[in-house]
Specification:
The protein is an alpha/beta fold and 516 residues long. The protein contains 19 helices and 19 strands. The chain is globular.
Amino acid sequence: MSSRVLVIGVNSQYVHTNLAIRYYRENAGCDIFECSINDNIFDVYTKLSEKDYEIFAFSVYIWNREFCVRLIKMLKSTKNITILAGGPEAAFGSDDFFRFCPQADAICFGEGENTFIALENGCDLTKAPNLIFKDFKTEYIPTNLETMKFPYKKEDLPDSKILYFETSRGCIFNCSYCLSSAMEKTKYFSDEYVFRGIDFFIENNVKLVKLVDRTFNDNDERCCRILEYIINNSKNTHFHFEIAPMLISNRFLSLCEKAGDLIQLEIGIQTTNPESMKAINRIYNLDKVKERVLKIPENVHTHMDIIAGLPFDTKESIKEAFNYVYSLKPDMLQLGFLKVLKGTKMESMQNKFNIQTTAFPPYETLSTSTLTASEMNDIRLTEKAVDRLYNSGAFKRCINFVQEKDMYSFFENIGKKLFKIEYNAPLSRTGLYTALLKILGEEYKEALALDFLDNNKKAYLPEEFTDEIPDIKELHNKIKKLEQFRNKKIRLTAFCGKTYVICEDGNFDISLFNLT
């Protein structure tokens, strides 16, 4: 066998691709194996146990640690192999990982390209760079991005996969909750490398490419060059970027106007609490950010984040942050929860702010010195309601009908009431609309009914919404005689004193025609 090392990527979902293992394949010559945590572990074990490699290397993250460790223990018990573990869940807090998984022979820390190049060139394991052993550590050699080869091949491009790409490593910011704060200074791939990668995605009709750069617009001139290249060359390939709102320039906004739906922007607001901003090293002017973000063209998809559980966070400050971000009109609003990751500055602040987290990945916050466990539970119920109603896009008319200024309280009320309704069993998709009608009241009936018809094209409107239609057969026959409905399959429904004709064509597309 030509390769000495098999590098194993365990993704959180089937649609994801593992960028790291492909770097090692292309730059070091390693063979790779990819699966997801949703696969049957015995099937994965069987496939791996039949492979004949000297070294099995696992890429370990918060979402796959349990799965990887179980695999490692299973393989080590039946095969005479060397086990390497890399990724943040192994490299940060390596002593803990060795205790949790003593079957691991070494842990790769930092960038791994030079480690695997050395191993594939026959280097003894104890002399390869960037490795931690139980009793010593080898020299750290960072990767030179100028020598890096592009990680993807055509066979990596099945239609249903999301591809990840990076144009830089590191971050100019030093946010205490982020692992990038533990990395070295930001470094950039050359424009030539980036443009060659973009060409590859475009030529192969990749639908969506997500850049893993921590702050894509940290260098405005470079960011705009790349964005301009995408605009001039891409027709159907979409690119997702994470940007810092305080760094949005007029030129960037102008290019967003030209790019339209070719790009998606992820914008981390995180908090609007001045004390929290200072504690996490993320300080910015809220008025300036709002002015910049509201200038992003409407046809550019925006995803905005806030984090609950930061130092000095209170339920009131989270409500303020939520309502601030809601006023920025994002397409998706992610109300996330602080995860105290190993190796971050937040880990060293945990005791000071009495941040209680789960003892297992993803180390999500349960309570803090300023947020009780009960308050955090309420926030989780609010987050679930936001996801179901706002982020799903299935209740647009209902959401647009809301006149409340305090949208956090609106979603919190729904979240708490849905939790009680679903205490013993989850609602069906249809049942959710009926439950929302009971929670919100009759004034929301028409908006909810239209949302249902828009998003449940084959289903019949629940009876709680419908009015009786007098002489329905006669009306149906009259409508069928109209020119626009001839040779079409139709059905009638009525609600809020209005009658609608629902047309179904061969693709089951629905058009609504208000007859009154």
